Amino acid sequence: MPSARVRTLASLRKALVGLETMSAPDSGRALLGHAEVDAVLKGGLARGALHEVFAEGRFSATATGFVAGLARRAADRRALLWIRQDFAAREAGDLAMTGFAELGLDPRRIVVVRAKDAEMVLRIAADGVACRGVGAVIAEMWGETRAFDLVASRKLTLASNASGIPCLTLRLAASPRTSTAETRWIVRAAHSPPTAPWEAWGEPVFDAALVRNRHGSTGQWIMKWKCDECLFSESAISQPAPHPQPVAAAPANRSDQARAVPQRQAG
Question: pTM here?
């Protein structure tokens, strides 16, 4: 009969074998927080891949906030490398670190690099994706450009696959083209009512259309960004109220009927 010590050792060995054969959680995807979107993306946004975000119309600020949220989820708490074309700053304004802080991002972990043209943006992005010291790379380009073609997108995809660092391209005033992107989003602003009477606006809400998904279906959702938790969540579509904020009362000493102003007759 084996002793109690031998039986214990055998039980521990069996438990260790079971732990070693268990499948580790998939660290190659980042959960966004929106249950339906995460399900369509097969477990979240792929980290080692290229993703595209387009602004619909003049919603450049909306697309900027959306891509910042995606990058924050993918990078976790590591640094973000944000590469901007100079012309984007002239057309859409500079990036505000106070705005990133309001979104829940740490401005101290955001490195902004300005490039003179789209070609330089892509070269810096390729180098940044190969650097394992960052959590995500955002390449922001303005307008239609021949530099970001199928060859350039494939180069970024291969570099991202090798390093496991996601590359997100922010395309403003541009139309989608053929690329090797894992996902492609078209974003515009959605109604965001204030949650308190003293607030001028509510939490950031995006009308996000996933128009390309290499490993799943597409769709369109209303996605709310929760600044405190730094994740997306579901948001129901609601019609804006005619007067969402209290209005000033009429003066007490004013008559109900305004005096008629005499009209001068031409003749």
Answer: 0.79
